[in-house]
DNA sequence: GCCAACGTTGGC
DNA sequence: GCCAACGTTGGC
């Protein structure tokens, strides 16, 4: 059985050279079992902003620490890393829609204070996540074969910290307000698709969240 | 540590 | 292709 873990990033720097060409992941893919694969072509909106979750606090999975917070991304060469370890089809499919230059929130999950810590940029589009073939990796997937890889990743580069940390609790208050009275966060995936580790934001959602930087905490 | 929510698996 | 059982996510 494939590991069904939350999305997580390794401490690996992204520039390690050997990546199978970045385009294979985006093109045709075989149907893989029963998981629903949303497709861009089927009239779904094309998103251009994202939110990606990772855990900033130490947690051990099979004896391996999966901690990877925004400070860890910042510390990598070129402040760039590959977002490996995503083992959920919807999350993977969103990564496959990402384009170079697009912005994503770095979200801290499963920690003291969950919320948005900073902004990063997509610097390489989807390509094969090599950790799926690595028996020693937490995210090894015995069902995935190199001639038909299941999982993809993108490279992200640190851009900046948000001017202040934007806690989940605050975002949730806005979400509830907006759901009741209308507003940009009424359908935010963070709340409507709670467990999705890579998720899209509309421009309105993204801009509204960024505008909170300059506001007093709610 | 609890547990609700929800994605995935597998029997039928 | 349905759906109950199972396992994981992730806030609290």
UniProtKB/TrEMBL annotation:
<feature type="compositionally biased region" description="Basic and acidic residues">
    <location>
        <begin position="12"/>
        <end position="23"/>
    </location>
</feature>
<dbReference type="InterPro" id="IPR015947">
    <property type="entry name" value="PUA-like_sf"/>
</dbReference>
<feature type="region of interest" description="Disordered">
    <location>
        <begin position="1"/>
        <end position="42"/>
    </location>
</feature>
<dbReference type="InterPro" id="IPR047197">
    <property type="entry name" value="THYN1-like_EVE"/>
</dbReference>
<dbReference type="InterPro" id="IPR052181">
    <property type="entry name" value="5hmC_binding"/>
</dbReference>
<dbReference type="GO" id="GO:0005634">
    <property type="term" value="C:nucleus"/>
</dbReference>
<keyword id="KW-0597">Phosphoprotein</keyword>
<feature type="domain" description="EVE">
    <location>
        <begin position="49"/>
        <end position="211"/>
    </location>
</feature>
<dbReference type="Pfam" id="PF01878">
    <property type="entry name" value="EVE"/>
</dbReference>
<comment type="function">
    <text>Specifically binds 5-hydroxymethylcytosine (5hmC), suggesting that it acts as a specific reader of 5hmC.</text>
</comment>
<keyword id="KW-0539">Nucleus</keyword>
<protein>
    <recommendedName>
        <fullName>Thymocyte nuclear protein 1</fullName>
    </recommendedName>
</protein>
<dbReference type="InterPro" id="IPR002740">
    <property type="entry name" value="EVE_domain"/>
</dbReference>
<feature type="compositionally biased region" description="Basic residues">
    <location>
        <begin position="1"/>
        <end position="11"/>
    </location>
</feature>
